[in-house]
Design a protein that fits this description.
The protein is an alpha+beta fold and about 350 residues long. It folds into two domains: about 5-65 and about 175-355, QueA-like; about 65-160, Thrombin, subunit H, CATH 2.40.10.240. Helices cover about 20% and strands about 30% of the residues. It has helices at about 155-160, 180, 205-215, 225-230, 250-260, 270-280, 315-325, 330-340; strands at about 25-30, 35-40, 55-60, 60-65, 65-70, 75-80, 85-90, 95-100, 110-115, 125-130, 130-140, 145-150, 190-195, 215-225, 245-250, 265, 285-290, 305-310, 350-355. It is globular. The model is unreliable at about 75-90 (pLDDT under 50).
Length: about 350
């Protein structure tokens, strides 16, 4: 398959730059796969589509304030000769770092994206504050760097103090204090994501309670969102694409709850990838590790019965997953309808319920 088959045109003004004041007021496009039709609803209507035997599967990963801004430590060289007695000076420049995952038990060594990455050399130091700096200790695939932090206290406390909310680049504004709450699900509890599992951003405690009142159970999985979720695909041939590994975990308590369900409604593509990763090993069970599962049309879904997800970027692995679940023609037709009806797209935008 060609990646170009999964393209669509989106007016820039439909990319949501702000969250709604009321999380549950988002619009919800409901796709009925068997009937090949859709209907326009609001997210607060979700419990109307649930009943006894259903189980919502939520990703409880918590977004870290994982974007840091620093400066390269300046390096002065020796004089370069009589013909030019001036000293060279390497001028420090601004550096942006996005932390992806810790690589050491003390959480001081991290895998990260660094910009500008090509100019950064191993053993260079980035200074974020008087009490927080990091040395580049290695290079990896996908343009990644390994950083070793130096701080006077706990690294997570330092991130909370100096880090920024890692809003995606299509939100064209600086992060604000309120994003620490709004770019986070109300049920987030396992720190580790570099981006929000955005389908969950619509839930409020009241909507969760209404889902339970409708007879649905709620189970939690963890997938720490990283490059495997948001990195663009770098090949035009879908089958040749590969995803970066992301950590996931399912507890036995939650696995048991999911095994008892008649239908699993995955909230977000990250929950789908956890469910289908575990389902490849047999009945749903407690499991943790890393997944590189790439889902595209032709995929055999073994656990996911319904899906709630946001609208995704053209040519992205997430859109391919949705097309695999709902069908490419229905998905792209529904997206065209959403554009005509002025739905709000992407992380802070509206959602799609696929039944």
């Amino acid at each position: 398959m060609e990646l170009a088959e999964f393209d669509y045109t989106l007016p820039a003004e439909l990319i949501a730059q702000e969250p709604l004041a009321d999380r549950a007021a988002s619009r919800m496009l409901v796709l009925h796969r068997a009937a090949g039709r859709w209907e326009d609803r609001v997210f607060r209507d979700l419990p109307l589509y649930l009943g006894p035997g259903d189980c919502l599967v939520l990703n409880d990963s918590k977004v870290l304030p994982s974007r840091l801004y620093g400066r390269r430590r300046g390096v002065r060289s020796l004089p370069i000769g009589k013909r030019n007695p001036k000293r060279r000076e390497y001028l420090s420049g601004t550096v942006e770092v996005l932390l992806l995952r810790p690589l050491s038990p003390d959480a001081l060594t991290w895998e990260a994206l660094v910009r500008p990455g090509r100019k950064m050399r191993t053993r260079e130091v980035i200074e974020f504050s008087d009490s927080l700096s990091a040395e580049i200790t290695g290079w990896g695939d996908y343009g990644l760097r390994t950083l070793r932090f130096h701080t006077e206290g706990d690294i997570y406390e330092a991130l909370d103090r100096f880090g920024h909310v890692p809003l995606p680049p299509y939100i064209r504004r600086p992060d604000r204090p309120e994003d620490r709450e709004r770019y986070q699900t109300v049920y987030a509890r396992e720190p580790g994501s570099a981006a929000a599992p955005t389908a969950g951003l619509h839930f409020t405690p009241e909507v969760l309670e209404a889902c339970r009142a409708a007879g649905a159970e709620i189970a939690y999985v963890t997938l720490h969102v990283g490059l495997g979720t948001f990195q663009p695909l770098h090949t035009e041939v879908v089958e040749q694409a590969r995803l970066h590994a992301e950590f996931f975990r399912v507890s036995e308590e939650n696995a048991a709850r999911m095994r008892q369900a008649r239908r699993l409604l995955a909230v977000g593509t990250t929950s789908v990838r956890v469910l289908e990763t575990v389902a490849r090993t047999g009945p749903l069970r407690a499991l943790s590790g890393e997944t590189e599962l790439f889902i595209y049309p032709g995929f055999d879904f073994r656990a996911t019965g319904a899906l709630l997800t946001n609208f995704h970027l053209p040519r992205s692995s997430l859109l391919l997953l949705v097309c695999a679940f709902a069908g490419k023609e229905l998905t792209l037709a529904a997206y065209a309808h959403a554009v005509r009806e002025r739905y709000r797209f992407y992380s802070y935008g509206d959602c799609v319920l696929i039944l």
